Amino acid sequence: MNFDSTVYNYPSSRNVVYAKKGMVATGQPMAAQAGLEILQKGGNAIDAAIATAATLTVTEPVSNGIGGDNFAIVWVKDKLYGINSSGKSPKLISIDKLKDRGLNEIPKYGLIPVTVPGAVGGWAALSKAFGKLPLTEVLAPAIRYATEGFAITPNVAKQWNNAFNTYKSQLKSEEFENWFKTFAPKGRSPKLGETWKSQDHANTLKLIAETNGEAFYKGEIADKIHAFSKKYNGYIRKEDLQVYEPEWVEPISINYRGYDVWEIPPNGHGIVALMALNILKGFEFSNRDSVETLHKQFEAMKLSFVDGQKYVADPRAMKVSVKELLSEDYAKKRRNLIRNEAINPVVGNPSSSGTVYLATADEEGNMVSMIQSNYMGFGSGIVIPETGIALHNRGHNFVMDPLHDNALSPCKKPYHTIIPGFLTKNNKPIGPFGVMGGFMQPQGHVQVIMNTIDFHMNPQDTLDAYRWQWVGGKTIQIEPNFPNNLALQLSKMGHDIMPLLDTSTFGRGEIIWRNDEGILCGGTEPRTDGTIAAW
């Protein structure tokens, strides 16, 4: 791939970054620097990704943590690998048990929505398979930041304060006290520029490093999670942790105008982005800022998302296959539903036909696309005493309808919103990309890919560009810089256009592209404390 081909034919841009030896792109400056530090010590892109991910649990706890999940797509030695480090529901949980407790839906907070955290297992598996340095060295920057403290950055300060205010008003019972002791020790959230540290977090990371994650799943950390959950009538037990293993998976893809776009298969919803692109590739687009382009994007996204919400689940429970959802025939059927007016999307029948993202690259050609999350900010509101571990709440995504593919049941993975992306052409890597942010993520992926391939935008311009998101029915939320004339015309086509002043709901992305000569080109997110550390 040469710079004069489609995705490298860039005009000059604000803050676009080029490098040769290595690059780390993420939404938090100290985490990016931690990844670069590991590259400079002889680590590869996989080591750098783990170091960055671990540091993000310290420096951006508002979005992810040791008690969450992660997914990654990794390019190593001319091959693409996928790892799904999400966990299953506890063996003891069931719909009937929750109904016996008077629950008709799965709560956001507390121990009930806690599934087995997979992030630590993902770090250990990636390190064992592809890393060059031991975890004790790779996790050293994160341990240092947790021990010595770090200065709170703007986006983190804002999200932390929002979470504190929510938790203070809603989380009143005893099991939530440790969250406030850990993350609001002064009776408030940390302020911008203030130093925050957690020795418990540092000690936990140190144990994880020294045991290659075994302490978390089979040792003293697992014992503490078990004891706390049992004390407060949760369902997760040491038995659930002991049997956990991350899953190596084959990434799934569609070809979009000569480029292969890759995602992790379900239980993640990356397939939603692929379904939308499959629909959209049947149209020609020459102008990004046109009513015709935006209308077709909106409609394709809606049609794909309702299918995803119906069919995406733990793959062992899915009644419809990935092959069926990504078939050309099914894409054509969905494409034919797009008219000149906005529709209320209806599920099709293919059988008849608070997250962080990081990207790393090294001089050897290795590249990593990784995403990690506690879900809904800090997650469940549960912090295990003496560990600093905030547990996630991924089980909230299960549904209580026993006939649904994504129905809650024991030892099952929930519908998962975090998705890393990767782009290749002619079996050569172009690079990792991602847009974090719950149900915005596949919508962000579609916009990134189209900005890159259809509209020839460089990584920074791609991420700077205004975004939109479908939130249900005919409602499309838009950013403040969305062109007003386009919004008015789209409204006349039946779209319920909803401007938002707060851009935090439109996702936070990172991109690294590489050419045949090994030159890296990166863009980072302007909607957060995004940083590229390059070498």
Explain what this protein looks like in three dimensions.
The chain is of the alpha+beta class. The protein has two domains: 20-88 and 109-245 and 356-391, no CATH class; 249-354 and 418-525, Serum Albumin, Chain A, Domain 1, CATH 1.10.246.130. 35% of the residues lie in helices and 19% in strands. The chain has 19 helices and 21 strands. The chain has helices at 29-40, 45-59, 95-100, 119-130, 135-138, 140-148, 154-170, 177-183, 199-211, 214-218, 220-231, 238-242, 270-280, 291-311, 322-325, 328-335, 441-453, 459-464, 484-492; strands at residues 17-19, 22-26, 69-76, 79-85, 150-151, 195-196, 247-249, 252-256, 259-263, 356-362, 367-373, 383-384, 389-390, 421-425, 428-436, 468-472, 475-478, 496-499, 508-514, 520-524, 531-534. The protein has a seven-stranded antiparallel β-sheet with strand order 1-20-19-15-14-9-8. Strand 8 (252-256) and strand 9 (259-263) form a beta hairpin. Helix 6 (140-148) runs antiparallel to helix 9 (199-211) and helix 13 crosses helix 17 (441-453). The two termini are 21 Å apart. The model is unreliable at 1-6 (pLDDT under 50).
